[in-house]
Protein backbone atom coordinates (compact mmCIF):
# COMPACT_ATOMS: atom_id res chain seq x y z
CA UNK A 1 0.00 0.00 0.00
CA UNK A 2 1.39 3.44 -0.90
CA UNK A 3 0.36 6.97 0.06
CA UNK A 4 1.37 10.46 -1.03
CA UNK A 5 2.52 12.71 1.79
CA UNK A 6 2.22 16.50 2.05
CA UNK A 7 5.50 16.95 0.16
CA UNK A 8 4.18 14.87 -2.71
CA UNK A 9 6.48 11.92 -2.00
CA UNK A 10 5.18 8.42 -2.27
CA UNK A 11 5.86 6.15 0.64
CA UNK A 12 4.75 2.78 1.82
CA UNK A 13 2.42 2.89 4.81
CA UNK A 14 2.62 -0.89 5.29
CA UNK A 15 6.33 -0.71 6.07
CA UNK A 16 5.82 2.09 8.59
CA UNK A 17 5.48 -0.01 11.73
CA UNK A 18 7.69 -2.78 12.99
CA UNK A 19 6.54 -4.21 16.27
CA UNK A 20 9.57 -4.86 18.44
CA UNK A 21 9.98 -6.88 21.60
CA UNK A 22 11.49 -5.68 24.85
CA UNK A 23 12.06 -8.31 27.51
CA UNK A 24 13.61 -8.97 30.86
CA UNK A 25 15.21 -12.30 31.64
CA UNK A 26 17.28 -13.18 34.70
CA UNK A 27 20.36 -15.39 34.58
CA UNK A 28 18.17 -18.51 34.35
CA UNK A 29 17.32 -17.23 30.83
CA UNK A 30 13.89 -18.84 30.27
CA UNK A 31 12.34 -15.71 28.79
CA UNK A 32 15.47 -15.14 26.70
CA UNK A 33 15.15 -18.64 25.17
CA UNK A 34 11.47 -17.99 24.40
CA UNK A 35 12.22 -14.64 22.75
CA UNK A 36 15.04 -16.11 20.64
CA UNK A 37 12.55 -18.46 19.01
CA UNK A 38 10.17 -15.66 17.99
CA UNK A 39 12.53 -14.35 15.26
CA UNK A 40 11.73 -10.68 15.84
CA UNK A 41 13.80 -7.60 16.69
CA UNK A 42 14.21 -7.75 20.46
CA UNK A 43 15.96 -5.69 23.14
CA UNK A 44 16.87 -7.13 26.52
CA UNK A 45 16.50 -4.94 29.62
CA UNK A 46 19.87 -5.19 31.42
CA UNK A 47 20.07 -7.52 34.43
CA UNK A 48 22.40 -5.14 36.28
CA UNK A 49 20.31 -2.38 37.82
CA UNK A 50 22.99 0.28 37.34
CA UNK A 51 23.60 -0.55 33.66
CA UNK A 52 22.70 2.14 31.10
CA UNK A 53 19.11 1.83 29.92
CA UNK A 54 18.32 2.58 26.27
CA UNK A 55 14.86 4.03 25.71
CA UNK A 56 12.52 2.43 23.21
CA UNK A 57 11.70 4.41 20.06
CA UNK A 58 8.92 2.53 18.29
CA UNK A 59 5.94 0.46 19.43
CA UNK A 60 6.83 -2.64 21.37
CA UNK A 61 5.45 -5.57 23.34
CA UNK A 62 7.00 -6.22 26.75
CA UNK A 63 7.74 -9.82 27.76
CA UNK A 64 8.14 -10.09 31.50
CA UNK A 65 8.73 -12.92 34.01
CA UNK A 66 7.25 -12.90 37.51
CA UNK A 67 9.36 -12.86 40.67
CA UNK A 68 6.82 -12.56 43.50
CA UNK A 69 7.45 -13.41 47.13
CA UNK A 70 5.06 -15.62 49.12
CA UNK A 71 2.59 -12.73 49.47
CA UNK A 72 2.62 -11.79 45.78
CA UNK A 73 4.86 -8.76 46.38
CA UNK A 74 7.77 -7.80 44.10
CA UNK A 75 6.21 -9.66 41.15
CA UNK A 76 7.49 -7.18 38.54
CA UNK A 77 11.31 -7.23 38.38
CA UNK A 78 12.89 -3.94 39.54
CA UNK A 79 14.68 -3.60 36.22
CA UNK A 80 11.31 -3.65 34.41
CA UNK A 81 9.88 -1.03 36.79
CA UNK A 82 12.92 1.19 36.09
CA UNK A 83 12.37 0.76 32.34
CA UNK A 84 8.66 1.58 32.60
CA UNK A 85 9.35 4.62 34.76
CA UNK A 86 10.65 6.30 31.57
CA UNK A 87 7.55 7.96 30.09
CA UNK A 88 8.69 7.47 26.45
CA UNK A 89 8.85 3.74 27.10
CA UNK A 90 5.38 3.62 28.64
CA UNK A 91 3.98 5.57 25.69
CA UNK A 92 5.44 3.10 23.16
CA UNK A 93 4.18 0.03 25.05
CA UNK A 94 1.30 -1.66 23.20
CA UNK A 95 0.87 -4.87 25.19
CA UNK A 96 2.45 -7.33 27.59
CA UNK A 97 3.23 -11.04 27.51
CA UNK A 98 3.82 -12.67 30.89
CA UNK A 99 6.08 -15.60 31.71
CA UNK A 100 6.07 -17.58 34.94
CA UNK A 101 5.57 -21.01 36.43
CA UNK A 102 2.18 -22.56 37.33
CA UNK A 103 3.75 -24.10 40.45
CA UNK A 104 3.33 -20.64 42.00
CA UNK A 105 -0.46 -21.01 41.91
CA UNK A 106 -2.36 -17.74 42.34
CA UNK A 107 0.64 -15.60 41.46
CA UNK A 108 1.22 -17.41 38.14
CA UNK A 109 2.42 -14.77 35.64
CA UNK A 110 1.22 -12.04 38.01
CA UNK A 111 3.73 -9.49 36.67
CA UNK A 112 1.85 -9.39 33.36
CA UNK A 113 -1.44 -8.57 35.05
CA UNK A 114 0.19 -5.83 37.14
CA UNK A 115 1.93 -4.16 34.16
CA UNK A 116 -1.22 -4.41 32.01
CA UNK A 117 -3.28 -2.83 34.76
CA UNK A 118 -0.84 -0.02 35.61
CA UNK A 119 0.04 0.89 32.02
CA UNK A 120 -3.50 0.35 30.64
CA UNK A 121 -2.42 -2.04 27.90
CA UNK A 122 -3.75 -5.53 27.11
CA UNK A 123 -2.25 -8.68 28.63
CA UNK A 124 -1.74 -10.54 25.36
CA UNK A 125 -0.63 -13.96 26.58
CA UNK A 126 0.81 -15.89 29.53
CA UNK A 127 3.13 -18.88 29.34
CA UNK A 128 5.35 -21.06 31.48
CA UNK A 129 9.14 -20.99 31.56
CA UNK A 130 10.59 -20.87 28.01
CA UNK A 131 7.25 -21.80 26.40
CA UNK A 132 6.15 -24.76 24.30
CA UNK A 133 5.99 -25.08 20.53
CA UNK A 134 2.30 -24.12 20.82
CA UNK A 135 3.19 -20.99 22.81
CA UNK A 136 5.71 -20.02 20.13
CA UNK A 137 3.19 -20.53 17.30
CA UNK A 138 0.39 -18.66 19.08
CA UNK A 139 2.65 -15.77 20.05
CA UNK A 140 4.07 -15.43 16.53
CA UNK A 141 0.55 -15.40 15.12
CA UNK A 142 -0.68 -12.85 17.69
CA UNK A 143 2.27 -10.52 17.15
CA UNK A 144 1.85 -10.63 13.37
CA UNK A 145 -1.85 -9.76 13.76
CA UNK A 146 -1.06 -6.90 16.15
CA UNK A 147 1.56 -5.59 13.73
CA UNK A 148 -0.96 -5.62 10.86
CA UNK A 149 -3.41 -3.67 13.04
CA UNK A 150 -0.72 -1.11 13.91
CA UNK A 151 0.20 -0.74 10.23
CA UNK A 152 -3.39 -0.08 9.25
CA UNK A 153 -3.61 2.77 11.77
CA UNK A 154 -0.14 4.23 10.96
CA UNK A 155 -0.09 7.43 8.87
C1 LIG B 1 12.32 -16.27 43.59
C2 LIG B 1 11.38 -16.64 42.47
C3 LIG B 1 10.06 -16.26 42.56
C4 LIG B 1 9.17 -16.58 41.53
N1 LIG B 1 7.85 -16.22 41.66
C5 LIG B 1 6.99 -16.55 40.68
C6 LIG B 1 5.61 -16.21 40.81
O1 LIG B 1 5.16 -15.62 41.79
N2 LIG B 1 4.78 -16.54 39.77
C7 LIG B 1 5.21 -17.20 38.66
O2 LIG B 1 4.41 -17.44 37.75
N3 LIG B 1 6.51 -17.54 38.53
C8 LIG B 1 7.40 -17.25 39.51
N4 LIG B 1 8.72 -17.59 39.38
C9 LIG B 1 9.14 -18.35 38.19
C10 LIG B 1 9.75 -17.47 37.10
O3 LIG B 1 8.86 -16.44 36.69
C11 LIG B 1 10.04 -18.37 35.89
O4 LIG B 1 11.04 -19.32 36.25
C12 LIG B 1 10.48 -17.58 34.68
O5 LIG B 1 10.55 -18.46 33.58
C13 LIG B 1 11.83 -16.91 34.92
O6 LIG B 1 12.18 -16.24 33.73
P1 LIG B 1 13.70 -15.89 33.41
O7 LIG B 1 14.51 -17.19 33.50
O8 LIG B 1 13.67 -15.37 32.02
O9 LIG B 1 14.14 -14.88 34.41
C14 LIG B 1 9.63 -17.29 40.39
C15 LIG B 1 10.97 -17.67 40.31
C16 LIG B 1 11.84 -17.35 41.33
C17 LIG B 1 13.29 -17.78 41.21
Written overview of the protein:
There is one protein chain. By secondary structure, the chain is an alpha/beta fold. The protein has one domain (19-131): Flavodoxin domain (Rossmann fold). The chain has 5 helices and 7 strands; from the N terminus they run E-E-E-H-E-E-H-H-E-H-E-H. It has helices at residues 30-36, 78-84, 87-92, 110-119, 133-153; strands at residues 2-4, 10-12, 20-23, 42-44, 60-65, 93-100, 123-128. The strands form 2 sheets. It has a 5-stranded parallel beta sheet with strand order 4-3-5-6-7, with helices on both faces. Helix 4 (110-119) links the parallel strand 6 (93-100) and strand 7. The longest helix has 21 residues, at 133-153. The structure holds flavin mononucleotide. Flavin mononucleotide (FMN) binds next to helix 1 and strand 6.
Residue fraction in strands: 15-25%
Which sequence of SSEs, written as H and E, runs from N to C? EEEHEEHHEHEH
Compute the gyration radius: what is it?
Answer: 17 Å
Which sheet architecture does the biggest sheet show? 5 strands, parallel
State the total count of DSSP E strands.
7
